[in-house]
Amino acid sequence: MNPGNAHQDLYELYVLGLLEEPERSLVEEELRRNDPEAKARLKRALELNALLGMTVPATEPRKELRRRIAAIAEPLPSRAPWSLAWAALSACLVAGLIYTGMQRQAVHGELAATLKTLDQTRAALEIREATLDFLRRPDTRILKSGTAEERRPVAKVFVNPSRGVLLVAANLPALPAGRTYEMWVVPKAGGPRPAGLFKPQADGSAVHLQTGPVPLGDAAAIALSDEPEGGSPQPTTTPFLITPVAE
Amino acid sequence: MILFFPLVFATVDVQGDQELAVRLQRRDPQALGELYDKYGRIAYSLIVRIVRDEGIAEDLTQETFLRIWNRMAGFDAQKGALGAWVLTVARNRAIDYLRSVDGRTRQNAIELSATESPAVFVDLEAHLMSSDRVRQLRDAFGKLNDKQRMVIELAYFEGLSQTEMAERLKQPLGTVKSWVRTALQILRTELEQAVPA
Protein backbone atom coordinates (compact mmCIF):
# COMPACT_ATOMS: atom_id res chain seq x y z
CA MET A 1 0.00 0.00 0.00
CA ASN A 2 1.20 3.49 -0.72
CA PRO A 3 2.40 4.90 2.63
CA GLY A 4 0.68 8.17 1.76
CA ASN A 5 -2.60 6.29 1.83
CA ALA A 6 -1.85 4.73 5.23
CA HIS A 7 -5.04 5.92 6.84
CA GLN A 8 -6.60 7.75 3.96
CA ASP A 9 -9.99 6.24 4.75
CA LEU A 10 -9.96 8.04 8.10
CA TYR A 11 -9.68 11.34 6.23
CA GLU A 12 -12.48 10.34 3.91
CA LEU A 13 -14.71 9.63 6.88
CA TYR A 14 -13.54 12.84 8.55
CA VAL A 15 -14.50 14.89 5.52
CA LEU A 16 -17.88 13.20 5.50
CA GLY A 17 -18.31 14.23 9.14
CA LEU A 18 -18.51 10.60 10.21
CA LEU A 19 -15.21 9.87 11.91
CA GLU A 20 -15.58 8.86 15.53
CA GLU A 21 -13.18 8.97 18.42
CA PRO A 22 -10.36 8.22 18.91
CA GLU A 23 -9.54 8.42 15.19
CA ARG A 24 -11.07 11.88 14.84
CA SER A 25 -8.63 13.36 17.35
CA LEU A 26 -5.78 11.67 15.51
CA VAL A 27 -6.77 13.27 12.20
CA GLU A 28 -7.34 16.68 13.76
CA GLU A 29 -3.96 16.53 15.45
CA GLU A 30 -2.25 15.71 12.15
CA LEU A 31 -4.02 18.60 10.47
CA ARG A 32 -3.13 20.97 13.30
CA ARG A 33 0.53 20.07 12.82
CA ASN A 34 0.20 21.18 9.20
CA ASP A 35 1.70 17.86 8.18
CA PRO A 36 2.10 17.78 4.35
CA GLU A 37 1.00 14.13 4.25
CA ALA A 38 -2.11 15.03 6.21
CA LYS A 39 -2.88 17.89 3.85
CA ALA A 40 -2.50 15.58 0.87
CA ARG A 41 -4.87 13.06 2.46
CA LEU A 42 -7.37 15.81 3.17
CA LYS A 43 -7.17 16.98 -0.43
CA ARG A 44 -7.79 13.48 -1.77
CA ALA A 45 -10.71 13.06 0.61
CA LEU A 46 -12.27 16.35 -0.45
CA GLU A 47 -11.97 15.33 -4.08
CA LEU A 48 -13.68 12.00 -3.53
CA ASN A 49 -16.36 13.70 -1.45
CA ALA A 50 -17.13 16.18 -4.23
CA LEU A 51 -17.17 13.50 -6.89
CA LEU A 52 -19.60 11.40 -4.86
CA GLY A 53 -21.92 14.39 -4.85
CA MET A 54 -22.13 14.19 -8.59
CA THR A 55 -23.48 10.65 -8.60
CA VAL A 56 -27.05 11.67 -8.02
CA PRO A 57 -29.88 11.65 -10.54
CA ALA A 58 -30.43 15.15 -11.88
CA THR A 59 -33.54 16.85 -10.47
CA GLU A 60 -34.70 20.12 -11.96
CA PRO A 61 -35.44 22.82 -9.39
CA ARG A 62 -38.30 25.29 -9.87
CA LYS A 63 -37.37 28.53 -11.62
CA GLU A 64 -38.45 30.36 -8.47
CA LEU A 65 -35.39 29.01 -6.68
CA ARG A 66 -33.03 30.93 -8.93
CA ARG A 67 -34.88 34.15 -8.17
CA ARG A 68 -34.62 33.46 -4.43
CA ILE A 69 -30.90 32.81 -4.64
CA ALA A 70 -30.16 35.75 -6.94
CA ALA A 71 -32.02 37.98 -4.47
CA ILE A 72 -29.40 37.18 -1.82
CA ALA A 73 -26.90 39.32 -3.73
CA GLU A 74 -29.16 42.01 -5.11
CA PRO A 75 -28.00 45.47 -4.13
CA LEU A 76 -30.36 47.49 -1.99
CA PRO A 77 -30.93 50.41 -4.40
CA SER A 78 -32.23 48.25 -7.24
CA ARG A 79 -34.98 46.85 -5.09
CA ALA A 80 -35.50 49.71 -2.70
CA PRO A 81 -39.30 49.89 -2.99
CA TRP A 82 -39.74 46.22 -2.23
CA SER A 83 -36.99 46.22 0.37
CA LEU A 84 -38.53 49.10 2.21
CA ALA A 85 -41.94 47.51 2.04
CA TRP A 86 -40.64 44.23 3.34
CA ALA A 87 -38.53 45.95 5.95
CA ALA A 88 -41.43 48.04 7.15
CA LEU A 89 -43.75 45.05 7.23
CA SER A 90 -41.13 42.96 9.02
CA ALA A 91 -40.46 45.65 11.57
CA CYS A 92 -44.18 46.21 12.13
CA LEU A 93 -44.78 42.51 12.66
CA VAL A 94 -41.91 42.18 15.09
CA ALA A 95 -42.91 45.36 16.85
CA GLY A 96 -46.54 44.33 17.09
CA LEU A 97 -45.67 40.99 18.62
CA ILE A 98 -43.29 42.54 21.07
CA TYR A 99 -45.66 45.35 21.97
CA THR A 100 -48.14 43.12 23.72
CA GLY A 101 -45.74 41.90 26.34
CA MET A 102 -42.77 44.20 26.58
CA GLN A 103 -42.10 47.67 27.73
CA ARG A 104 -43.06 50.42 25.32
CA GLN A 105 -39.70 52.09 25.61
CA ALA A 106 -37.81 48.95 24.68
CA VAL A 107 -40.08 48.40 21.69
CA HIS A 108 -39.47 51.87 20.32
CA GLY A 109 -35.73 51.56 20.85
CA GLU A 110 -35.60 48.21 19.16
CA LEU A 111 -37.78 49.30 16.26
CA ALA A 112 -35.62 52.37 15.67
CA ALA A 113 -32.47 50.26 15.87
CA THR A 114 -33.96 47.69 13.52
CA LEU A 115 -34.96 50.25 10.91
CA LYS A 116 -31.58 51.93 11.11
CA THR A 117 -29.81 48.62 10.65
CA LEU A 118 -32.04 47.69 7.74
CA ASP A 119 -31.08 50.89 5.98
CA GLN A 120 -27.40 50.38 6.63
CA THR A 121 -26.50 46.85 5.64
CA ARG A 122 -27.59 44.11 3.34
CA ALA A 123 -26.83 41.54 5.98
CA ALA A 124 -29.36 43.12 8.28
CA LEU A 125 -31.94 43.09 5.50
CA GLU A 126 -31.41 39.37 5.03
CA ILE A 127 -31.98 38.84 8.73
CA ARG A 128 -35.18 40.86 8.74
CA GLU A 129 -36.52 39.07 5.68
CA ALA A 130 -35.75 35.75 7.28
CA THR A 131 -37.46 36.97 10.46
CA LEU A 132 -40.60 37.94 8.58
CA ASP A 133 -40.63 34.63 6.79
CA PHE A 134 -40.19 32.88 10.11
CA LEU A 135 -42.96 34.79 11.86
CA ARG A 136 -45.58 34.40 9.16
CA ARG A 137 -45.29 30.65 9.03
CA PRO A 138 -48.36 29.04 10.57
CA ASP A 139 -46.33 26.53 12.54
CA THR A 140 -44.25 29.15 14.35
CA ARG A 141 -45.09 29.20 18.07
CA ILE A 142 -44.41 31.87 20.67
CA LEU A 143 -42.86 31.18 24.06
CA LYS A 144 -42.31 33.73 26.83
CA SER A 145 -39.64 34.14 29.44
CA GLY A 146 -38.92 36.60 32.25
CA THR A 147 -41.22 39.31 33.52
CA ALA A 148 -41.84 42.87 32.43
CA GLU A 149 -40.46 44.26 35.67
CA GLU A 150 -38.29 47.33 35.35
CA ARG A 151 -34.82 46.46 33.99
CA ARG A 152 -35.18 42.71 34.41
CA PRO A 153 -34.17 40.74 31.31
CA VAL A 154 -37.23 39.69 29.37
CA ALA A 155 -37.61 37.68 26.19
CA LYS A 156 -40.07 36.31 23.74
CA VAL A 157 -38.96 33.28 21.83
CA PHE A 158 -40.58 32.14 18.61
CA VAL A 159 -39.93 28.58 17.55
CA ASN A 160 -40.57 26.84 14.27
CA PRO A 161 -39.55 23.20 13.96
CA SER A 162 -38.37 23.53 10.37
CA ARG A 163 -37.09 27.11 10.43
CA GLY A 164 -35.35 27.77 13.73
CA VAL A 165 -35.60 29.98 16.78
CA LEU A 166 -36.17 33.75 16.99
CA LEU A 167 -35.32 35.53 20.24
CA VAL A 168 -36.59 39.04 20.93
CA ALA A 169 -35.14 40.28 24.21
CA ALA A 170 -34.94 43.47 26.23
CA ASN A 171 -33.10 44.66 29.32
CA LEU A 172 -30.14 42.37 28.72
CA PRO A 173 -27.14 43.36 30.82
CA ALA A 174 -24.36 45.08 28.88
CA LEU A 175 -21.43 42.80 28.09
CA PRO A 176 -17.81 43.57 28.92
CA ALA A 177 -15.27 43.52 26.10
CA GLY A 178 -14.50 40.05 24.80
CA ARG A 179 -17.83 38.57 25.87
CA THR A 180 -20.95 37.65 23.89
CA TYR A 181 -24.36 36.14 24.51
CA GLU A 182 -24.90 32.61 23.27
CA MET A 183 -28.33 31.06 22.76
CA TRP A 184 -28.87 27.38 23.57
CA VAL A 185 -31.43 24.76 22.68
CA VAL A 186 -31.61 22.62 25.79
CA PRO A 187 -32.70 19.07 24.96
CA LYS A 188 -34.70 16.89 27.33
CA ALA A 189 -31.66 14.66 27.58
CA GLY A 190 -28.03 15.59 27.05
CA GLY A 191 -26.15 18.85 26.98
CA PRO A 192 -27.36 22.16 25.53
CA ARG A 193 -26.78 22.69 21.82
CA PRO A 194 -25.33 26.02 20.63
CA ALA A 195 -27.86 28.20 18.78
CA GLY A 196 -25.85 31.23 17.76
CA LEU A 197 -24.08 34.24 19.19
CA PHE A 198 -25.29 37.83 19.44
CA LYS A 199 -24.65 41.08 21.23
CA PRO A 200 -27.40 43.34 22.52
CA GLN A 201 -27.97 46.91 21.49
CA ALA A 202 -26.86 49.67 23.84
CA ASP A 203 -30.36 49.78 25.34
CA GLY A 204 -30.22 46.07 26.20
CA SER A 205 -32.53 44.93 23.42
CA ALA A 206 -31.67 42.18 20.97
CA VAL A 207 -33.20 40.25 18.10
CA HIS A 208 -31.44 37.00 17.30
CA LEU A 209 -32.59 34.54 14.65
CA GLN A 210 -31.00 31.10 14.54
CA THR A 211 -32.00 29.44 11.31
CA GLY A 212 -32.17 25.72 10.72
CA PRO A 213 -34.47 22.96 11.85
CA VAL A 214 -35.12 22.53 15.56
CA PRO A 215 -36.24 19.13 16.80
CA LEU A 216 -38.85 20.56 19.17
CA GLY A 217 -39.97 17.13 20.25
CA ASP A 218 -36.61 16.74 21.97
CA ALA A 219 -36.23 20.33 23.18
CA ALA A 220 -36.96 21.23 26.79
CA ALA A 221 -36.03 24.90 26.76
CA ILE A 222 -34.30 27.80 25.07
CA ALA A 223 -31.73 29.63 27.20
CA LEU A 224 -28.99 32.27 27.10
CA SER A 225 -25.58 32.48 28.68
CA ASP A 226 -22.70 34.94 28.80
CA GLU A 227 -19.74 33.42 26.93
CA PRO A 228 -16.28 34.37 25.66
CA GLU A 229 -16.06 35.95 22.20
CA GLY A 230 -16.47 33.20 19.63
CA GLY A 231 -18.82 31.18 21.81
CA SER A 232 -18.47 27.92 23.67
CA PRO A 233 -19.48 24.36 22.85
CA GLN A 234 -21.22 24.16 26.23
CA PRO A 235 -22.30 26.97 28.61
CA THR A 236 -19.48 28.22 30.83
CA THR A 237 -21.74 30.50 32.90
CA THR A 238 -25.11 29.80 34.42
CA PRO A 239 -27.78 29.99 31.70
CA PHE A 240 -30.57 32.53 32.24
CA LEU A 241 -33.79 33.57 30.55
CA ILE A 242 -34.61 29.88 30.39
CA THR A 243 -37.73 29.62 28.28
CA PRO A 244 -39.51 26.27 28.48
CA VAL A 245 -40.61 24.69 25.22
CA ALA A 246 -44.11 23.48 25.90
CA GLU A 247 -45.28 20.31 24.20
CA MET B 1 -34.69 -2.03 2.48
CA ILE B 2 -31.88 0.04 1.05
CA LEU B 3 -32.15 1.16 -2.52
CA PHE B 4 -28.92 1.75 -4.32
CA PHE B 5 -28.72 5.07 -6.06
CA PRO B 6 -28.82 4.97 -9.81
CA LEU B 7 -25.56 6.20 -11.21
CA VAL B 8 -26.92 8.97 -13.34
CA PHE B 9 -24.02 11.35 -13.36
CA ALA B 10 -24.20 15.03 -13.92
CA THR B 11 -21.22 17.05 -15.07
CA VAL B 12 -20.29 20.68 -14.89
CA ASP B 13 -17.82 22.69 -16.86
CA VAL B 14 -15.41 24.27 -14.38
CA GLN B 15 -13.96 26.65 -16.96
CA GLY B 16 -14.25 30.19 -15.73
CA ASP B 17 -14.57 29.32 -12.05
CA GLN B 18 -11.55 31.44 -11.16
CA GLU B 19 -13.05 34.54 -12.73
CA LEU B 20 -16.42 33.78 -11.19
CA ALA B 21 -14.84 33.45 -7.75
CA VAL B 22 -13.13 36.81 -8.15
CA ARG B 23 -16.45 38.43 -9.09
CA LEU B 24 -18.15 36.82 -6.12
CA GLN B 25 -15.47 38.21 -3.85
CA ARG B 26 -16.05 41.64 -5.38
CA ARG B 27 -19.74 41.21 -4.46
CA ASP B 28 -20.84 41.31 -8.10
CA PRO B 29 -24.60 40.64 -7.71
CA GLN B 30 -24.87 38.83 -11.05
CA ALA B 31 -22.08 36.45 -10.11
CA LEU B 32 -24.20 34.64 -7.54
CA GLY B 33 -26.87 33.98 -10.16
CA GLU B 34 -24.18 32.65 -12.47
CA LEU B 35 -22.82 30.45 -9.70
CA TYR B 36 -26.32 29.07 -9.24
CA ASP B 37 -26.67 28.51 -13.00
CA LYS B 38 -23.48 26.49 -12.89
CA TYR B 39 -23.82 24.52 -9.68
CA GLY B 40 -27.39 25.07 -8.49
CA ARG B 41 -28.90 22.12 -10.30
CA ILE B 42 -26.34 19.62 -9.04
CA ALA B 43 -26.45 21.05 -5.52
CA TYR B 44 -30.25 20.90 -5.50
CA SER B 45 -30.21 17.37 -6.95
CA LEU B 46 -27.81 16.25 -4.25
CA ILE B 47 -29.94 17.77 -1.50
CA VAL B 48 -33.12 16.25 -2.92
CA ARG B 49 -31.39 12.88 -2.98
CA ILE B 50 -30.54 13.24 0.70
CA VAL B 51 -33.68 14.83 2.19
CA ARG B 52 -36.18 13.44 -0.35
CA ASP B 53 -38.40 16.52 -0.14
CA GLU B 54 -38.25 19.15 -2.87
CA GLY B 55 -39.61 21.98 -0.70
CA ILE B 56 -37.06 21.41 2.02
CA ALA B 57 -34.39 20.96 -0.64
CA GLU B 58 -35.18 24.42 -2.04
CA ASP B 59 -34.74 25.98 1.41
CA LEU B 60 -31.48 24.10 1.98
CA THR B 61 -30.18 25.05 -1.47
CA GLN B 62 -30.89 28.68 -0.66
CA GLU B 63 -29.02 28.27 2.64
CA THR B 64 -26.14 26.70 0.73
CA PHE B 65 -25.74 29.64 -1.63
CA LEU B 66 -26.25 32.16 1.17
CA ARG B 67 -23.43 30.48 3.08
CA ILE B 68 -21.18 30.50 0.00
CA TRP B 69 -21.95 34.20 -0.60
CA ASN B 70 -21.23 35.13 3.00
CA ARG B 71 -17.98 33.15 3.17
CA MET B 72 -16.43 34.08 -0.16
CA ALA B 73 -13.86 36.30 1.54
CA GLY B 74 -12.14 33.18 2.88
CA PHE B 75 -12.01 31.43 -0.50
CA ASP B 76 -8.81 31.32 -2.56
CA ALA B 77 -10.01 32.50 -5.96
CA GLN B 78 -6.76 31.50 -7.67
CA LYS B 79 -6.34 28.00 -6.29
CA GLY B 80 -9.76 27.18 -4.85
CA ALA B 81 -12.19 24.55 -6.14
CA LEU B 82 -15.52 26.33 -6.26
CA GLY B 83 -17.67 23.40 -7.34
CA ALA B 84 -16.26 21.04 -4.74
CA TRP B 85 -16.92 23.62 -2.05
CA VAL B 86 -20.51 24.20 -3.17
CA LEU B 87 -21.24 20.48 -3.21
CA THR B 88 -19.67 19.99 0.22
CA VAL B 89 -21.69 22.81 1.74
CA ALA B 90 -24.84 21.46 0.06
CA ARG B 91 -24.31 17.96 1.42
CA ASN B 92 -23.54 19.28 4.88
CA ARG B 93 -26.72 21.37 4.96
CA ALA B 94 -28.75 18.32 3.96
CA ILE B 95 -27.06 15.98 6.42
CA ASP B 96 -27.44 18.54 9.23
CA TYR B 97 -31.14 18.66 8.40
CA LEU B 98 -31.45 14.86 8.46
CA ARG B 99 -29.63 14.68 11.77
CA SER B 100 -31.83 17.34 13.31
CA VAL B 101 -35.07 15.68 12.31
CA ASP B 102 -33.75 12.29 13.38
CA GLY B 103 -32.55 13.67 16.71
CA ARG B 104 -29.01 12.74 15.70
CA THR B 105 -27.53 16.20 16.25
CA ARG B 106 -24.27 15.74 18.09
CA GLN B 107 -20.62 16.54 17.88
CA ASN B 108 -20.50 15.45 14.24
CA ALA B 109 -22.24 18.69 13.33
CA ILE B 110 -19.10 20.46 14.42
CA GLU B 111 -17.07 18.26 12.13
CA LEU B 112 -19.24 19.11 9.17
CA SER B 113 -18.71 22.82 9.73
CA ALA B 114 -14.97 22.32 10.10
CA THR B 115 -14.68 20.48 6.80
CA GLU B 116 -16.56 23.04 4.72
CA SER B 117 -14.26 25.95 5.46
CA PRO B 118 -13.47 27.67 2.14
CA ALA B 119 -9.80 27.72 3.07
CA VAL B 120 -9.43 23.94 2.73
CA PHE B 121 -10.69 23.80 -0.87
CA VAL B 122 -7.37 24.71 -2.44
CA ASP B 123 -5.18 22.90 -4.93
CA LEU B 124 -7.75 20.26 -5.66
CA GLU B 125 -7.53 18.46 -8.94
CA ALA B 126 -8.19 20.89 -11.79
CA HIS B 127 -10.50 18.55 -13.67
CA LEU B 128 -12.18 17.17 -10.58
CA MET B 129 -15.70 17.66 -11.88
CA SER B 130 -15.05 16.78 -15.48
CA SER B 131 -17.09 14.16 -17.28
CA ASP B 132 -14.01 11.94 -17.39
CA ARG B 133 -13.64 11.91 -13.61
CA VAL B 134 -17.32 11.27 -13.13
CA ARG B 135 -17.18 8.36 -15.55
CA GLN B 136 -14.13 7.00 -13.73
CA LEU B 137 -16.02 7.08 -10.46
CA ARG B 138 -18.92 5.28 -12.12
CA ASP B 139 -16.51 2.60 -13.26
CA ALA B 140 -15.03 2.42 -9.77
CA PHE B 141 -18.47 1.91 -8.28
CA GLY B 142 -18.86 -1.04 -10.58
CA LYS B 143 -16.02 -2.74 -8.70
CA LEU B 144 -17.84 -2.56 -5.35
CA ASN B 145 -19.97 -5.40 -4.08
CA ASP B 146 -23.48 -4.77 -2.72
CA LYS B 147 -22.37 -4.38 0.88
CA GLN B 148 -19.62 -1.97 0.00
CA ARG B 149 -21.97 0.14 -2.10
CA MET B 150 -24.52 0.08 0.69
CA VAL B 151 -22.17 1.47 3.33
CA ILE B 152 -20.93 4.20 1.01
CA GLU B 153 -24.53 5.20 0.38
CA LEU B 154 -25.35 5.18 4.09
CA ALA B 155 -22.31 7.29 4.83
CA TYR B 156 -22.64 9.81 2.06
CA PHE B 157 -26.39 10.14 1.60
CA GLU B 158 -27.64 9.44 5.11
CA GLY B 159 -24.70 10.70 7.14
CA LEU B 160 -24.52 7.57 9.29
CA SER B 161 -21.36 6.96 11.27
CA GLN B 162 -19.90 3.48 11.24
CA THR B 163 -21.43 2.82 14.65
CA GLU B 164 -24.83 3.92 13.38
CA MET B 165 -24.42 1.76 10.28
CA ALA B 166 -23.61 -1.25 12.45
CA GLU B 167 -26.80 -0.65 14.44
CA ARG B 168 -28.89 -0.12 11.30
CA LEU B 169 -27.51 -3.18 9.54
CA LYS B 170 -27.33 -5.31 12.70
CA GLN B 171 -23.73 -6.15 11.94
CA PRO B 172 -20.64 -6.06 14.17
CA LEU B 173 -18.87 -2.70 14.09
CA GLY B 174 -15.66 -4.35 12.92
CA THR B 175 -17.45 -5.86 9.94
CA VAL B 176 -18.93 -2.52 8.95
CA LYS B 177 -15.56 -0.81 9.31
CA SER B 178 -14.04 -3.42 7.05
CA TRP B 179 -16.71 -2.87 4.39
CA VAL B 180 -16.24 0.90 4.56
CA ARG B 181 -12.48 0.75 4.44
CA THR B 182 -12.43 -1.68 1.54
CA ALA B 183 -15.01 0.32 -0.40
CA LEU B 184 -13.09 3.55 0.03
CA GLN B 185 -9.83 1.88 -0.90
CA ILE B 186 -11.34 0.50 -4.10
CA LEU B 187 -12.82 3.86 -5.09
CA ARG B 188 -9.59 5.68 -4.31
CA THR B 189 -7.37 3.17 -6.08
CA GLU B 190 -9.53 3.13 -9.19
CA LEU B 191 -9.62 6.91 -9.34
CA GLU B 192 -5.89 7.27 -8.75
CA GLN B 193 -5.08 4.71 -11.42
CA ALA B 194 -7.27 6.61 -13.84
CA VAL B 195 -5.40 9.89 -13.31
CA PRO B 196 -2.55 10.42 -15.76
CA ALA B 197 0.74 10.83 -13.91
What does this structure look like?
The complex is a heterodimer of chains A (247) and B (197). Chain A has 247 residues and is of the alpha+beta class. Helices cover 40% and strands 23% of the residues of chain A. Chain A has helices at 8-15, 23-32, 36-52, 63-73, 80-99, 104-120, 122-136; strands spanning 141-146, 154-160, 164-170, 179-187, 193-198, 206-211, 219-228, 240-244. Chain A has a four-stranded antiparallel sheet, covered by helices on one side. In chain A, helix 1 (8-15) packs across helix 3 (36-52) and helix 6 crosses helix 7. Chain A is globular, with a radius of gyration of 22 Å. Chain A starts with 7 loop residues before the first helix and ends with a strand. In chain A, 37% of the residues are buried. Chain B is mainly alpha-helical. Helices cover 67% and strands 0% of the residues of chain B. Chain B has helices at residues 17-25, 29-51, 54-71, 82-102, 108-114, 131-141, 146-158, 162-169, 173-194. The longest helix of chain B is centred in the N-terminal third of the chain and has 23 residues, at 29-51. Chain B starts with 16 loop residues before the first helix and ends with a helix.
Features:
heterodimer; A: 247 residues; alpha+beta; 4-stranded antiparallel sheet; 40% helix; 23% strand; B: 197 residues; mainly alpha; 9 helices; globular
Task: Give the DSSP E fraction of chain B (strand runs of 2 or more residues).
Answer: under 5%
Helix content of chain A: 25-40%
Helix content of chain B: 55-70%
User: Which pair of chains forms the biggest interface, and how many residues does each contribute?
Assistant: A-B, 55 and 85 residues
The helix-strand sequence of chain A is HHHHHHHEEEEEEEE
Unreliable stretches of chain B (pLDDT < 50, length at least 5) are 1-9
Any idea what the shape of chain A is? globular
Q: What is the β-strand count of chain B? A: 0
Order of helices and strands of chain B: HHHHHHHHH
Largest sheet of chain A: 4 strands, antiparallel
Largest sheet of chain B: none
**Over the alpha carbons, how many angstroms does the gyration radius of chain A reach?**
22 Å
Assembly state: heterodimer
**What is the straight-line distance between the termini of chain A?**
55 Å
